[in-house]
Design a protein that fits this description.
The complex is a heterodimer of chains A (112) and B (115). Chain A has 112 residues and is mainly beta. Chain A has no helices and 11 strands. In chain A, the strands form 2 sheets. In chain A, strands 2, 4, 5, 9, 10 and 11 form a 6-stranded mixed sheet that branches. In chain A, strands 1-3-8-7-6 form a 5-stranded antiparallel sheet, with no helix packed on it. Chain A starts with a strand and ends with a strand. By secondary structure, chain B is mostly beta strands. Chain B is built from no helices and 11 strands. In chain B, the strands form 2 sheets. In chain B, strands 2, 4, 5, 6, 9, 10 and 11 form a 7-stranded mixed sheet that branches. Chain B has a 4-stranded antiparallel sheet with strand order 1-3-8-7, with no helix packed on it. Chain B is globular. Chain B starts with a strand and ends with a strand. Classes of the chains: A mainly beta (112), B mainly beta (115). Chains A and B meet through strand 5, strand 9 and strand 10 of A and strand 4, strand 5 and strand 9 of B.
Chain lengths: 112, 115
């Protein structure tokens, strides 16, 4: 089993604050993705990182893939209430299997 | 264009009943996945189809779970003799090709509650 642990599990912050969510594993992944899921909906892809050490930015969100491709982080600058949701990391392992291994999730609440 | 749709959105079943959950993937998508998401957890892989072929069913938790995609489009996940531990959201996803790491598009899920 490819285990992806996310921390923190829950995060409640004020609008305008910065935050970082971590996704860690003892396994190596060929690529890693971040999703956001809102209540009653399926996960929606935010970004895919492929190369060790890669950094991608999406507006106020910055994603980083660890050098060893075992971990990743998501940093949000100046959080807004619209950022509220469940953030999931997910990876494709190195066997070439098509299914995603999802992390345990981080539930973010941004208070106006 | 239309995304992935699932029906029913909510299903309540008494323990021991059989249920069937439907997934309509994005038209033309080759790959279809089923995931199970327990409350407050990330989704867990159940099974994978490429067209009508079920290439991976390693995530199905027991032989009470059965999935099919007979014509390579619509898929049905069937759970026989439901148990309380089957209560979860069942997510379907499709992707355009059979290439690993291709983007998966998720449906809204079916929330199954077994009483």
């Amino acid at each position: 089993t490819q285990l992806l642990e996310q921390s923190p599990q829950f995060l409640s912050i004020q609008e305008g604050e910065n935050l970082t969510v971590y996704c860690n594993s003892s396994s190596v992944f060929s690529s890693l993705q971040w999703y956001r899921q809102e209540p009653g909906e399926g996960p929606v892809l935010l970004v895919t990182v492929v190369t060790g050490g890669e950094v991608k930015k999406l507006k106020r969100l910055t994603f980083q893939f660890g050098d060893a491709r075992k971990d990743s982080s998501l940093h949000i600058t100046a959080a807004q209430p619209g950022d509220t949701g469940l953030y999931l990391c997910a990876g494709f392992d190195q066997t070439g299997a098509n299914n995603l291994f999802f992390g345990t999730g981080t539930r973010l609440t941004v208070i106006p | 264009g239309a995304g992935v749709s699932q029906s029913p959105r909510y299903k309540v079943a008494k323990r021991g009943q059989d249920v069937a959950l439907r997934c309509d993937p994005i038209s033309g998508h080759v790959s279809l996945f089923w995931y199970q998401q327990a409350l407050g957890q990330g989704p867990e892989f159940l099974t994978y189809f490429q067209n009508e072929a079920q290439l991976d069913k390693s995530g199905l938790p027991s032989d009470r779970f059965f999935a099919e995609r007979p014509e390579g489009s619509v898929s049905t996940l069937k759970i026989q003799r439901t148990q309380q531990e089957d209560s979860a959201v069942y997510l379907c996803a499709s992707s355009e090709t059979g290439i690993s790491s291709d983007e998966q598009y998720f449906g809204p899920g079916t929330r199954l509650t077994v009483t």
